[in-house]
Amino acid sequence: MAPPPLDAPDFDAEAFVWHVAPDALVPVPRVSRIELELLVGIDRARDTLYANTLQFARGLPANNALLWGARGMGKSSVVKAVHAAVRAEGPDLKLVELQREDLPSVGRLLALLRDAPYRFVLFCDDLSFSHDDQHYKSLKAVLDGGVEGRPDNVVLYATSNRRHLMPRDMIENERSSSINPSEAVEEKVSLSDRFGLWLGFHPCSQDEYLAMIRGYCDSHGVAIDDETLRAEAIEWQATRGSRSGRVAWQYFTDLAGRKGVALS
Known about the structure:
This protein is α/β, with parallel strands linked by helices. 43% of the residues lie in helices and 13% in strands. The longest helix has 15 residues, at 43-57.
């Protein structure tokens, strides 16, 4: 009655997406990413993650990383950009994306990766948990614990808007309703403690916002004078009610379209 074991996947591609029902590692023919040097205003997080990833790709010890903080500030972009930069150094590092709702299957995924002759960055974007969500328990043993633990050839990078991955009211509710409040809270926040690297992403300044757009323009050959760019970009951010790397890219996409420049 048990399903047949999975065939050994073809690891020729540089990136994969994990699907369940049925289980499959689906190759990604072209990863959506921008170049590492175009990520402005997150220098410390970028450099730390790059160094950690390069260590891992070279077979040295490395930490799991939690990238947390302001939305639209390049948390997922830096993971994909760092992956490309490390591959450019020579190691054949693979990127595997795991959806949050598929966390219960992470044990089966790791069994598939454990004996592969490659090293893998397991990437979970927008990781967070709601009140009745028990998926975090599937991840705890993988990060640090369990009999098998995390395979030596796998490291986990996750992004989240929440530092402790849980909403504050969820933690406060545990404090007010549990028999032993401290133990209940410890269980909830212990997941984030199992990431060796915590990299914070914070809102950018206006100068950094403008520098992001100027970098995109120079990289893609979009000609615009500084005065016009400044006026349009500030107006764009005002209409969005926020300022971030994502807003900068959205303005640049609009600008490139108006200038007739295709973004490859």
